[in-house]
């Protein structure tokens, strides 16, 4: 985890350093790897499939903007998209795009609810998930009491794994309530990680807004299902001497939020870093403009891409596992085996903590 | 802060809405039927295994029971045969004893009857002899009075009459 984060940071700083000379170079060579990579991992108001010498294939997505006082405006992003062309940003209905960011021409506040590339991918993956898992469910209805078949038999071991190894082991007897969320979040992350690796697709699960919402949901579920033992553990951590409690309470309360925060950053950083690495290897071709780097690019690009296929599954699993561990900590009936450090105030030996 | 590190409001909104929608729909139409069928299947497999185990135990018990039954039957048969032999012997003995006793009784009775008959016959012979004697004596006495020759003759003729009594 730390490694991937540092890889990400390395690339971030690299791209920043590379920006200075590249900005000048881009005028001559027309290629800026930092910009290209950030464009690819970022969101946009149109779906740019591919570009050829004769032009690019782009799907213009709907702009939905809400401005206090002016109300809702809905139109195609084609009206304000500059495409490949340079020059001043096109304006429509008092709105324009500034580095893929929707702003109003008069500087007033704009709430952008546009169906961006990421949201289109989100809808697509949602539909895909609904189609696949209702098909799996139909399999259970059709092969009732018999062995699973087809798509059902592909997903059954995964579902059983999530149930037995993730939910049952970490949450305990109350696991059944959380199964829908755990399964949905697992397959949502996995599917979107894989879809994100598809050429031309959006980087949805590597978007911090998406991972933030997922992490917040885990936080809300954890807090909503927490019992008195959970709070007792935070505000009266067993085995901690009383003078230290104020510090421990602060640490534990911060801990409530750092857990989902780490979920958010972990998924975002892993997926984004993977994309950056793959794109960087591809960029080598354009930077060196030589066939000689092709074997290197190909070998490393392929290696990282295959690694990313693994990471896609791994991150989905880790997110689900940690979510179920946090929920398990919140619903646990009583804390056994809490480590006792030191002695109680009166010097007596520590009693068993519960 | 770089743009990709800033969560966009629109994406947060749509992610929340669409994810919750997917969660709700999948929970209702996929996870619920899938998890319940999985559970149902596991339960049925478990109960089938348990039933097989139970059947095995029952089978063993049945087999042990059968063997016990068979052994019991064999024992019973032996006992019955022994009993029957004893009873048959007893019966034979008693029958024989009874027959012997009966035969003895019959013989006894026969003997007694013979004795009685003999006594009766002897008594009758005696009576007849006495009667004849009295009769003869009467007739002799009557005749003697007339002639002695005729008396003897008369006695003879009477004796002739008496011969086949």
From TrEMBL, chain A:
The chain crosses the membrane at residues 119-141, 178-198, 204-224, 244-261, 267-288, 300-327. InterPro entries: ATP_synth_F0_asu, ATP_synth_F0_asu_bact/mt, F0_ATP_A_sf. Residues 1-18 form the signal peptide. Keywords: ATP synthesis, Cell membrane, CF(0), Hydrogen ion transport, Ion transport, Membrane, Signal, Transmembrane, Transmembrane helix, Transport. It holds the Pfam family ATP-synt_A. It is found in: Cell membrane; Membrane. The keyword Signal applies. It comes from the Bacteria. Its main location: membrane. SUPFAM superfamilies: F1F0 ATP synthase subunit A. PANTHER family: ATP SYNTHASE SUBUNIT A (PTHR11410). HAMAP family: ATP_synth_a_bact. Belongs to the ATPase A chain family. This is ATP synthase subunit a. The lineage of its organism: Bacteria, Pseudomonadati, Bacteroidota, Cytophagia, Cytophagales.
TrEMBL record, chain B:
It comes from Hymenobacter armeniacus. PANTHER family: ATP SYNTHASE SUBUNIT B, ATP SYNTHASE SUBUNIT B', CHLOROPLASTIC. It comes from the Bacteria. The chain crosses the membrane at residues 12-31. It is a single-pass membrane protein. Component of the F(0) channel, it forms part of the peripheral stalk, linking F(1) to F(0). The b'-subunit is a diverged and duplicated form of b found in plants and photosynthetic bacteria. Residues 38-72, 100-131 form a coiled coil. It is found in: Cell membrane; Endomembrane system. This is ATP synthase subunit b. SUPFAM superfamilies: F1F0 ATP synthase subunit B, membrane domain.
């Amino acid at each position: 985890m730390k490694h991937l984060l540092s890889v990400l940071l390395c690339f971030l700083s690299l791209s920043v350093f590379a920006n200075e000379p590249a900005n000048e170079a881009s005028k001559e060579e027309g290629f800026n790897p930092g910009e290209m990579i950030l464009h690819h991992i970022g969101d946009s108001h149109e779906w740019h499939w591919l570009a050829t010498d004769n032009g690019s294939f782009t799907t213009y997505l709907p702009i939905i903007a809400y401005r206090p006082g002016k109300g809702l405006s809905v139109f195609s992003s084609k009206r304000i998209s500059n495409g490949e062309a340079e020059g001043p940003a096109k304006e429509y209905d008092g709105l324009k795009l500034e580095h893929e960011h929707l702003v109003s021409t008069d500087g007033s506040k704009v709430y952008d609810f546009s169906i961006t590339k990421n949201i289109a991918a989100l809808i697509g993956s949602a539909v895909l998930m609904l189609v696949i898992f209702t098909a799996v469910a139909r399999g259970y209805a059709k092969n009732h009491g018999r062995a699973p078949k087809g798509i059902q038999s592909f997903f059954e071991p995964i579902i059983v794994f999530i149930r037995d190894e993730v939910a049952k082991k970490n949450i305990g007897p109350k696991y059944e309530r959380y199964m829908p969320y755990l399964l949905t979040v697992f397959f949502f992350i996995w599917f979107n990680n894989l879809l994100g690796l598809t050429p031309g697709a959006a980087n949805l699960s590597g978007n911090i807004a998406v991972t933030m919402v997922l992490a917040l949901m885990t936080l809300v579920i954890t807090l909503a299902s927490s019992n008195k033992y959970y709070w007792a553990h935070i505000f009266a951590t067993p085995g901690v001497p009383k003078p230290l409690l104020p510090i421990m309470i602060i640490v534990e309360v911060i801990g409530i939020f750092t857990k989902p925060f780490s979920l958010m950053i972990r998924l975002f950083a892993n997926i984004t870093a993977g994309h950056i690495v793959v794109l960087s290897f591809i960029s080598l071709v354009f930077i060196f403009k030589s066939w000689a780097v092709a074997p290197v690019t190909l070998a490393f690009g392929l290696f990282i891409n295959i690694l990313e296929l693994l990471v896609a599954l791994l991150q989905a699993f880790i997110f689900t596992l940690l979510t179920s561990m946090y929920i398990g900590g919140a619903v646990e009936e009583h804390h056994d085996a809490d480590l006792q450090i030191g002695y109680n105030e009166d010097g007596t030996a520590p009693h068993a903590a519960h | 802060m770089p743009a990709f590190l800033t969560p966009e409001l629109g994406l947060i909104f749509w992610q929340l809405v669409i994810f919750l929608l997917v969660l709700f729909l999948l929970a209702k139409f996929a996870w619920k039927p899938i998890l319940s069928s999985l559970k149902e299947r596991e339960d049925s497999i478990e109960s089938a295994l348990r039933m097989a185990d139970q059947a095995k135990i029952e089978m063993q018990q049945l087999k042990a029971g059968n063997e016990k039954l068979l052994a019991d039957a064999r024992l019973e048969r032996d006992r019955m045969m022994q009993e029957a032999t004893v009873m048959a012997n007893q019966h034979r003995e008693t029958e024989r004893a009874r027959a012997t006793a009966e035969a003895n009784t019959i013989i006894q009775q026969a003997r007694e009857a013979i004795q009685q008959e003999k006594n009766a016959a002897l008594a009758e012979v005696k009576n007849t002899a006495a009667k004849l004697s009295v009769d003869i004596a009467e007739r002799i006495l009557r005749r003697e009075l007339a002639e002695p020759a005729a008396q003897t003759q008369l006695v003879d003729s009477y004796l002739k009459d008496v011969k086949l009594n």
